[in-house]
Structures are given as C-alpha cells and as structure tokens.
Amino acid sequence: MTLTRDSLLTLEAYAKARKQMKAEIIPHRLLRSVRLGEHMNLQFEDEKTIRYQIQEMLRIEKIFEEEGIQDEIAAYAPLIPDGQNWKATMLLEYPDVEQRRRELALLIGVEDTVYVEVPGQPRVYPIADEDLERENAEKTSSVHFLRFEFTPAHIQAMRTGVPITMGCEHPHYAMQTVISPATAAALIQDFKAD
Length: 194
Hints:
There is one protein chain. The protein is built from six helices and eight strands, in the order αββααβαβββαββα. It has 194 residues and is α+β, with helices and mostly antiparallel strands. It has one domain. Strands 1-2-3-6-5 form a five-stranded antiparallel beta sheet. Helix 1 (11-31) packs across helix 2. It is globular, with a radius of gyration of 18 Å. Pfam families: DUF3501. It comes from Thiomonas delicata (Thiomonas cuprina). This is DUF3501 family protein.
C-alpha cells in the first residue's frame, strides 16, 4: 500500500484507532531497530512506521486541510524504502545535556561512517541527510536520515540467511553488532520480490 491522502485516517477516525495503532507500532519499531552501543539507535523505517508518524503529526498539528496533509506526505514518504534499499533514522542519544554537547562535537561526520556488512560483499555506507545538512563546524545533529543502497548480490546473499553486521567506524564511536535474525528477516522484507 502506498501513502496517499485517501489511505490516511481522518483526525476523528485516527483518534478512535490511535490506542490500538500505538500498541501495534511499538513492537514493530523495536523489531526494526538496531542499537550500536549505548548511544546510537538506528530505526529502520517502512510504510507502517511512516504512516504512523504522519498520522501523529496530523494529530499533533491538527492538520485536516488537503494542502497540509499533502505537505506531511511529501515530507515523510521519502523515508519509505523503495525495494532495493533500507532507510533509517539514526538517533544519537545522550540524556545528559552537557555530555550530549561534548559528544556531538566529537562525532562530526558520524553519519557517513555507519555501514552494513554482508559476508562476501563490500560494505555499504549510507547516503546521509539528503533532505538538508544536519551538522556544522562545531557539532553534528542528534538525528540523521540514512539510505543504504544494496546491489542485487547483497540482497541475494541476505536472503540466504547469512549474518548481517552493522557498524560504525567513526574514531570516537567505533561499534559493531550482528543484526538479530528476527530484525534481519523484518528488514529483508523491505526488498522487492525477484
């Protein structure tokens, strides 16, 4: 299903369905998340997570006019994978304000050093922040948007069940983890059928 104005719930209908939708989205998002160390979380988006995000924004902003709804769709729809990639929201999480300020200053360029590794294939680094620049000379942002583009060989290998590694090779945040089989299976569903 694609996101269109007609595929979204009205504010009134969403108000009635919100509790149930929230109960469904929490485990779905958890399944599609990969933590790299204590401070980095990659939330892999799909049609369901983005639909929920749009519905929440419409509710919070009380948007019910056609133009406003189309603007929200236009802003968020590019975060839905298109069949040969994964798209993720990367969150750098530091609860303490001073620590966050210090760490974000050290982590300039971190969004370009995250990777996906599939055995027998070259590492895939993301195309980061296509919508706008999210860092300056003093610090990086705590939120980045990443797109990982895969070759048919990567996708074919992933479908065989090989372990998929995610990592970050930034000098101030070197981390690596093997994606859990359940999360890998969920992410592989983002690829279009052969």
